[in-house]
Amino acid sequence: MKLTILISATIIGTLGGWLGASLDHGNLLGGWSILLSSVGSIVGIWVGYKAYQYI
């Protein structure tokens, strides 16, 4: 269970940070990058939990 949640939170959090950086013109430590990375990680925890329930 922990591994599923960790993997999904990492992948979705990274994608959120990448999207935020592209919105902020490549600034990886910009506000959008940090915000969307945090939101992506929270969504990733939820997705990992739901994915584990289906396994």
Q: How would you describe the overall organization of this protein?
A:
The chain is an all-alpha fold and 55 residues long. It has one domain. It is 84% helix and 0% strand. The chain has 2 helices and no strands. The protein has helices spanning 2-23, 31-54. α1 packs antiparallel against α2. It is elongated, with a radius of gyration of 12 Å. The termini are close together. 24% of the residues are buried.
Name some characteristics of this structure.
55 residues, mainly alpha, 84% helix, elongated
| Tally of separate domains | 1
**Strand tally, please?**
0
- What percent of residues are in strands? under 5%
Instruction: Specify the overall morphology.
Output: elongated
Radius of gyration: 12 Å
Distance between the termini: 10 Å
| Mean pLDDT level | 94
> What is the percent of helical residues?
over 70%
Helix count, DSSP H or I runs of 4 or more residues? 2
Main sheet overview: none
Encode the helix/strand succession as letters.
HH
Structural class: mainly alpha
Uncertain stretches of 5 or more adjacent residues? none
Short summary of the structure?
This protein is mostly helical. The chain has two helices and no strands. The chain starts with a helix and ends with a helix.
Fold topology:
Blueprint: H1 2-23, H2 31-54
